[in-house]
Amino acid sequence: LRIPRMDLCHVPAAREKGWYLALMAPNVKGPNYAWLDPSRLYCHPQALQDCVADLLQPFQGDPVDMVAGIDAMGFILGAAAAAVLGKGFLAIRKAGHLCVQTLTQPYTDYSGREKVMEVRTDAISPGLRILLVDQWVETGGTMRAAVQLVERLGGVVAGIAAICIEDSEGGRWIQERYKCSHGVPPRLQPRFDRHQ
């Protein structure tokens, strides 16, 4: 099976919100993997820029002190968002990767696996406004754990951004409580929720 190479130069004439979603690659490795791989759009310079701009647009004018990205793919979008905003970046890690004092939070990920997330305790002071960024919110377990870590340290969740926030129980919980942003146009949301 030969996979065609991406055209990293082609940019559509009309760049509507979410045009870059077409660059994502479907799962070809089976049920142990996510249904879609968004990382292809990061390889396309205009797609990455437009995706980050779309994710940040609802937060224009909002006070944000720091951007936090969730291990591991949230590091890409989170660091890009922090650079655009001129803010610092905080990595929220899977447990066991930080060699400093940490706060931990257990959670269940999209595949139903029990995991633990951690964050360094010296980066978030009470009242610090954090924009949380991840690649995808499917069941909401990972993002909810990140929210809990920020809030347990006294931080304020200024907003949540992801390429897609699915209409799941966890996704709805997040969107009902926090200002959220994602790159999926409303007309396409049902297809993403059904993993089509």
From TrEMBL:
Its main location: cytoplasm. It is found in: Cytoplasm. InterPro entries: Adenine_PRTase (IPR050120), PRTase-like (IPR029057), PRTase_dom (IPR000836). Pathway: Purine metabolism; AMP biosynthesis via salvage pathway; AMP from adenine: step 1/1. Its EC number is 2.4.2.7. Residues 62-172 form the Phosphoribosyltransferase domain. It catalyses: AMP + diphosphate = 5-phospho-alpha-D-ribose 1-diphosphate + adenine. It is an enzyme of class 2 (transferase). The keyword Isomerase does not apply. One of its GO terms (cellular component) is cytoplasm. One of its GO terms (molecular function) is adenine phosphoribosyltransferase activity. Keywords: Cytoplasm, Glycosyltransferase, Purine salvage, Transferase. PANTHER family: ADENINE PHOSPHORIBOSYLTRANSFERASE, PHOSPHORIBOSYLTRANSFERASE DOMAIN-CONTAINING PROTEIN. Homodimer. This is adenine phosphoribosyltransferase. It comes from Ciccaba nigrolineata. The lineage of its organism: Eukaryota, Metazoa, Chordata, Craniata, Vertebrata. The gene is Apt1.
